[in-house]
Amino acid sequence: MIGGGQLARMMIPAAVELGVEIRVLAEAEGMSAALAATAVGDYRDRDTVLAFARDVDVVTFDHEHVPQEVLHALIDAGEAVHPGPGALAVAQDKLVMRERLSELGLPVPDWGRVETAAELDDFIAEHGGSAVVKTARGGYDGKGVRVVRRAAEVAEWFATLAEDGNAGALLVEELVDFRRELAQQVARRPSGEIVAWPVVETVQVDGICSEVIAPAPHSAGRVADLAEDIAVRVAEGLEVTGMLAVELFETVDGRVLVNELAMRPHNSGHWSMDGATTGQFEQHLRAVLDLPLGATGCREPWSVMVNVLGGPAEGEMVDRYPEMLASHPTAKVHNYGKSPRPGRKIGHVTVSGDDLDEVVYQARAAAAVFAD
Amino acid sequence: MIGGGQLARMMIPAAVELGVEIRVLAEAEGMSAALAATAVGDYRDRDTVLAFARDVDVVTFDHEHVPQEVLHALIDAGEAVHPGPGALAVAQDKLVMRERLSELGLPVPDWGRVETAAELDDFIAEHGGSAVVKTARGGYDGKGVRVVRRAAEVAEWFATLAEDGNAGALLVEELVDFRRELAQQVARRPSGEIVAWPVVETVQVDGICSEVIAPAPHSAGRVADLAEDIAVRVAEGLEVTGMLAVELFETVDGRVLVNELAMRPHNSGHWSMDGATTGQFEQHLRAVLDLPLGATGCREPWSVMVNVLGGPAEGEMVDRYPEMLASHPTAKVHNYGKSPRPGRKIGHVTVSGDDLDEVVYQARAAAAVFAD
Q1: What residue of A is the nearest CA neighbor of B303?
Q2: CB B218 within 8 A of CB B158
């Protein structure tokens, strides 16, 4: 696994149970996945990555940022790489993503490729006076995304494009009037088998995932079917291998539109570690190893995951364990081994049960014990 | 954790999720828990153990075999040791165990301490012509246990005692007419909190645990209450810290008697990793760290665990994954990273669900794929 963050860390338990040896190329010493880090180095460096990959059976990723030339060098060296460069190219560039999804006929917000402020102002004028502008690369957790009413509000992004000299462009999208956000996860093996979890509802605060309810309330039937159908078409159309998360808008007029894609285990699927028969980390391992995939049903009627964002102002998450664990005996705490810092995802809590109100309450209250 | 077997291995995922750093003193290189092994050495060697324990917050165990003098050396060095030497002394010697349980007024089979063949023949004559003889130390998985009709059948055990010169004795017990075997697990913190899982039914084949059904069918009410009460009294009476498993006989005349004790995570509790809100490995960590204990309810109505004993005659467990995982998508496989060998516990499979017949079928069939 390339990348030593919390997604790599949470792969370790799944690997231990399956009896799969996991090795991590971490960006630095002491990262979340340090226990399995057999190498430390720069994932953008071809030789570092090739050396790391030499003795493994399959290469997979904690993030989507490994450059295409490095991915292709791995393929040229005969390594199995999942997901492959072709799929990752779509996750790496939001303009490419919108183009490919549109080609596949999938429902997406109205969008455009804009190279100038004038083009952007035209798009805004045609879409009710506002729009969402995104940088094609490098955005995550709300970064590189801005809601604007005029092109001048992203003037510095255009300036950066001009300096870049690569004839770059920004992605602009209609501001979708959505009822809520959903996420649909599927796993796909190289040999084609694909399985879907129930669609979940995600709650974002300031562009960062705060909470996930699984399954999404009132989703059974049409919404669930639409979401699953979209994610399966994305996975098959882009030949994604491993985990795929499709972030979706459920619009006020009842449509389901694709917002973003992630080709790895994803925050929207953390609930599955505790709440589903097969968790996303185990499933990712099974998928990239081309092993048969596991059942994706819920172990209990409801699961709610709440992120621990930032964490205690003083001390570490573990300092709050006596209070948290005593007050919330059904809460499952996942600690990423990261130092608290405002806005940083340092852990999450999942609660499962029969009564959604109670489950939501317990999960939020448990996570709140870790907040300042 | 002292000891690098599968129990230490299965502690690793729980430690990763809780954000607890786990270090293992393994008996050899390449053991099940090698990923967390920071030292390799002999747990009977005082200096080896003291050096390993120097920088940890708490010492706990994969087995009960660390000698009392080493345990006391740890205590003298100021280490927190859970379970402590006093509790472990009872688990280390079956005669001591029977004496202490009898003192505590707990229901046990009729038993006796026999130093000579004549004493044993007398016990047999008084108990219907047969009895179970056990060596006080060193038995496990059916070793050191023999059903006899005359003392001559354990003549070599008496001979060994005589050579030993320690005035040793054998434990003899009535041959209990039992309907089935049960196991009751509890966890207890140093500060006193104690929680119990549902009582489970265990199936032994040739003295080795083969299968566990959780909860034990038809146990709700009297049997469950008796089992829990016994285990709580054992844990409190012996001041056990961490996990305690009490193996029980449910007799044909409706009594519940204590068979054996284990003061560590135990095979009878492996189902809880998948089937309960809090698994025994996480709970053991919480208990020995004196953190509040987790909820012990079942996530699904039934869970069945089947051991993988021996494993494939050729190859490894993973070679059977394509067949096993494809046929049993709800099965959770736990691979201990050990080479197959006749009779060796190299993994287990757990299936959970609503329909006990289906769950039993799936778990047995899944485990059978790994058999020769």
Answers
A1: A299
A2: no
Where does residue B372 rank: exposed (0-12), middle (13-18), buried (19+ CB within 10 A)? exposed
Q: With CB atoms and an 8 Å threshold, state whether A18 touches B352.
A: no
- CATH placement of domain B110-174: 3.30.1490.20
Contacts of B310 by beta carbon, 8 Å cutoff, 6+ apart: B340, B341, B342, B343, B344, B346, B371, B372
Residues of chain A with CATH 3.30.1490.20: 110-173
**Residue A349 CB: number of other CB atoms within 10 A?**
27
Element containing residue B187 per DSSP (H, E): strand B178-188
pLDDT in the model for residue B335: 98
Q: Where are the beta strands (DSSP E) in A166-275?
A: 170-173, 178-188, 194-196, 200-205, 208-214, 242-251, 256-262
Fold of the domain spanning A178-370: D-amino Acid Aminotransferase; Chain A, domain 1 (3.30.470)
Cα torsion through B39, B40, B42, B46, rounded to 10 = -20
What angle do helix axes B68-76 and B46-53 make, rounded to 10 degrees? 40
> Is the pLDDT higher at B168 or at B12?
B12
CB contact under 8 A, B9 and A16: yes
Say if residue B137's pLDDT is above 90: no
| CATH 3.40.50.20 location in chain A | 6-81
Probe site for chain A from B7, B16, B273 (most A CB atoms < 10 A): B16
Q: Quick one: three-class SS letters along B100-140?
A: HHHHCCCCCCCEEEECCHHHHHHHHHHCCCCEEEEECCCCC
- Provide the token pair at A155: 């003037």
pLDDT grade for B165, boundaries at 50, 70 and 90: low
- At B141, the pLDDT band (50, 70, 90 cuts) reads low
CB A17 within 8 A of CB B334: yes
With contact defined as beta carbons under 8 Å apart, do A155 and A148 qualify?
A: no
pLDDT value of position A211: 97
Question: Under 8 Å CB-to-CB from B212, ≥6 apart: which residues?
Answer: B183, B200, B201, B202, B203, B267, B268, B270, B271, B304, B305
Summarize pLDDT for A255-281 with one digit per residue, the tens.
999 999 999 999 999 999 999 999 999
Give chain A's mean pLDDT.
95
- This model of the complex carries an ipTM of 0.94
CATH topology of domain B6-81: Rossmann fold (3.40.50)
Give every CB contact of residue A297 below 8 A, 6+ residues apart in sequence. Answer: A198, A276, A277, B330
A10 contact residues in B (CB cutoff 8 A): 16-17
pLDDT given for residue A142 in this prediction: 67
Residue A67 has pLDDT above 80, yes or no: yes
| Domain at B178-369: CATH code | 3.30.470.20
Distance of CA B269 to the CA centre of its chain: 8
Residues of chain A neighbouring B17 (CB-CB closer than 8 A): 10, 13, 332-335
Residues of A in contact with B322 (CB under 8 A): 291-292
Lookup: tokens for B331:
């099965």
Residue B87's nearest CA partner among B262, B257, B268, B292 is: B262
> Does the structural domain A110-173 have CATH classification 1.10.510.10?
no
